[in-house]
Amino acid sequence: MYQAPTPVPTPPPAPTDIVVPGAVAQLLPDGTAAAPADAPPQVQQAIFAANKIQDKPYRYGGGHAKVEDKGYDCSGTVSYALLGGGETLGLEGPLDSGSFMSWGEAGAGQWITIYTNPGHAYAVIAGLRLDTSIGSSPRGADRKLAAQHKKAMDRGPRWRPWERSSRGFKKRHPVGF
C-alpha cells in the first residue's frame, strides 16, 4: 500500500510588525526591528516598511526610479522608510541624499532624524540606525552587538545596532517628528 510522504511544514515568514514596550526600537535576531509602543503610528509604520527591505542588496540608484525595487541605495532606503510612514511624514517621493539636505526641518527630530550630505544619507528612527553602510567598524560593546546581529554587518539596507559618526552630515527631520 502506497503511503504519501508527510509534507514538511513551511515556516511562516518572519513578522515585520512587532511592537515592544517603551520608546526605543529594538533590533531582532532576524535583522528586522521591533517598533516601540510609545512611538506615533507613523513612526511605527516607517520601521515596519524598512523591515521589508532588510534582505535587499545595495544598488546604486535603487529605490529612486521605482519605490519597490530589487535593491536600494542609501537615500532610496531612507525614502522607502519615510514613504512607508505615510503622508504626514512629508515625503512625496524618493529623494537623493543631496535633496534630503533641505527637506523637512533642520536639526534632530524627536522620533526620526535623517543624517545627510551630498554623498550619503541614513536615518535614526526611534533610536535605531537604518543605513546601507556599516559606518565604522564596531568597537567595545558595539562588537558584542555586531556578533549578536550578524546581518547588521552586511552591505545594503540594514538596521545597525551601533552609532556612527555624524561629522559632515546635516541633521533633518520630518515636521512634528
From TrEMBL:
<feature type="compositionally biased region" description="Basic and acidic residues">
    <location>
        <begin position="140"/>
        <end position="166"/>
    </location>
</feature>
<protein>
    <recommendedName>
        <fullName>NlpC/P60 domain-containing protein</fullName>
    </recommendedName>
</protein>
<feature type="compositionally biased region" description="Basic residues">
    <location>
        <begin position="167"/>
        <end position="177"/>
    </location>
</feature>
<dbReference type="InterPro" id="IPR038765">
    <property type="entry name" value="Papain-like_cys_pep_sf"/>
</dbReference>
<feature type="region of interest" description="Disordered">
    <location>
        <begin position="137"/>
        <end position="177"/>
    </location>
</feature>
